[in-house]
Each structure stands twice: as structure tokens, then as C-alpha cells.
Amino acid sequence: MTDALTPVDDEVVVVGAGPVGLTAALAATGHGMKVSVLEAEPAGRERPGSRAIFVHRETLEHVEKLSPGLGRKIADEGVQWLGKRTFWGEREVFARTYPPPRRGMLPHSTNLAQVRTEEILLAACQAAGVRFRWGFRVNGVEAGPDGVTLHADDGRTCSAPYAVAADGARSAVRQALGIPLEGNRSGSSFVIVDVEETTEEPLPLERRYYYAHPAVGGRNVLLVPFAGGWRADLQCRPDDDPGQFSDAEGTRSWIARVLPARYADQVSWVSTYRFHQAVAREFIDPAGRVLLVGEAAHLFAPFGARGMNSGVADAVAAAEAIATALRHGGPAPGPAEPVRGFDSQRRRAAENNRRAAGLALDHMLARDRQTRLRRRAAAELARIWERPGEWLDAAPYGPRKPVGSVGGRY
Predict the structure, then answer these.
(1) Which phi and psi (to 5°) does residue 176 adopt?
(2) 408: pLDDT confidence band, cut at 50, 70 and 90?
């Protein structure tokens, strides 16, 4: 593809060079299609923060099939925690340890900063012949029975039979097509902090969840290791000012209370979120030439790590649908049957994941008296019975979902 304002010979154009867009490009090349990726940011852009760190086995299996050895590389560069512990205040109510992953087998999951996952996928795409156009900021989309044309704000255009929109939560492609996101936003804020690991007595590789951590005024805290550091999530109360926990002094203060004090000097990234729970009304345009994937199509609270992982499943399904449509398609009005199938299947998966993530969020926020009483009763019963403690451990991540509705638990 060139920078000229003329159509190109790509069969698929992917918008967005995040992990979902790169997976879509790699999947499309695996079907023998010529692919270009359009990314609004410049090449070599810096991406602060760990972002989506939790990579499910299903995602590792997807990328392993697309490029043998790729899933293994991501797994090996990440860390697999070997235990999990859940606390009610200072009291442990559930604990479980796991054996190390079997040699030669993909692990249940791996924890790796998103920027590194993107670097690995980018190298695989470049090796597969995917072409990239950096600094292509989409500000217009024309889709019709013969294909799609994307317009950049610098005057460039790019045309192809199909496009995959993987350009994130503020998707310029989705907005240009007039497809709304439908859903709501959490009432409470969450402060998310990356803390670099220290060489002095590294902590055990285990996930910890605290209901009502006494050191931070009874707020909930999640601690998760990833390659090179720890992710610390603090759940604010509805009437909190998140700034008191996210400015430099406030962050150091609460990190020193939920991790050993030496970690207060290792903070590398801080962000504050109110999580959206939303799904696009349609995952395709009326002509069936643009397919939405990942956060361009859905937004979930992160509990259960459904965002990026379900986005990878979207990307693989989109590439398959386009490949089938190109092989068997003919002149016909409206979307090809495989593309309609993609829309139906992935919207259904997204709705399932939104419900599951919503249940997890409702459990954590505990806005109703019944949920608060149930949690407290489970904490008391966990003194003598494992099952209530297991429920307290699992509930913040939502129920497990069947294959195709990608979900899981930290």
C-alpha cells in the first residue's frame, strides 16, 4: 500500500495496532489475504502502563494457531502466578496453590504488560508481510456494496473490500458509521497502579484480593503480579475523591500500606477509571463491509479479564468471516452470510461477557443490602467451611462462560 490517494490491492484493512488489531491482521494473513494496518499514532509510540496484563489460555491458543510458537513466546515472557489468596479484612478466607505449568503445555494464563504483547504481535505481523501505515488518523468512512474507503485527517485514503475496526473505546470508525454503544458506567472509581518489582525479597507470585482492607479504610484491594512488577487496584467509595489516591503523595501512601513499604518508591504508572459496561448496537455496518472488534465493539469492567481476551476471539472470527465471504461471495445486496454470522455470534458473546462482568462489578460495589449481607455471611461461614470462602474468592471476577464468550477468573 502507498500513501497515494488511490485504492490499493489489500483485501482487508485493519484499523488499530493494539493487540486485537494485530491479531486480526495476523489471522487475515493466515487466510492468504493481503492486509494493511492503519494506526493513528506514529511508529514507535510509547504506551505507558501495563494495561491488559492477563492473557487467557484461549488467547494463547488462538495466537499459537496463527503463528506456531507465538503463544508459547507470550506465555514464557509473562509470569504465571502459582497461588491465590482472598481476605476478609486481615483474615484469610480462601487460599489455593497450583503446580507449575507442565513443560510443553500452554499455561492456564500468563501475566504480561500489554505493550510487550503488542511488540511480540507486531514482529509476527511484520514477518508475515502485513503492511503498516502509521499516523493514519481516520476521520471518515464510506462503506458500500463494493467495499470500504477510509479517509485520514491528512487527506490520505485507503480502500479495500473489507475493514476491521480495532481502534479502541473511542473508535473513530464506529463513530463515523453512526453505530452507538449501549450500556452504563460504574458509579465508583478505581485507581490502578503499576509497581515495579524490587530485587530485595520479591513477593510470592500469587494473586491477592482483600475485601475491606483495614490499611486503606476498608476499601477493596486487588494485587496481581505480572512480568516485572505488580498491579494494584483500589476500589474507591462513591463519595471518594479519586485524586487523594492517585496523586504522587496519595499513591505512595496507600501502596506502602498494601505492599511492603519499599514498593512505594517503585510506582511507574497510575490511572483512574470508571468502568463502562457497553456493547455496540451492531458489529457490522449496513453494507457488511466493516466489522467491529475488541473495544471498538464492547467495553467491560476488567474483572475476569474479558476485554482483550474476547477481543482476540472477535479478531479471529472476523478474519474467518471475511475469508469465507471472499471465497464464496458474489454480487448481492447487504452483508454476506458469513459476515452476518460474525455479527450475531460476537454480539451474543459480548452480551454474555457484559452480564458476567456486570455481576462481578455488582458484587464488588455491593450497593444493595442483600449483597452486603451475603458477603458478610460467607465470610463468617468461611471460618468452618471452604465453599463460602471459594465463593468470596471467585465472585469478584464473575461466572465462568462457555467457549466463544471468553471469560475467566484472576
Answers:
(1) -65, -30
(2) very low
